[in-house]
Write a structure and sequence with these properties.
Elements (H helix, E strand, L loop, with lengths): L2 E3 L8 H17 L4 E3 L29
Amino acid sequence: MRVACVQMAMGPDHAVNEQYALTAMGKARDLGASVVVFPELSCLPFFPAHPADPEYFEWAVPVQAM
């Protein structure tokens, strides 16, 4: 099993970050990875560094229960 780790700097645009992550995943797959690992909060800036800023509450997305 080949595992790829992606390190990426996130900006404020979620769609741009997500596209970068998908591109990185495709490159990892092309290089033989069967598992790709991303950093925590992989498509958003690390907002817990500023927990009092209500702007980040708008980034919340619903998660479907299993």
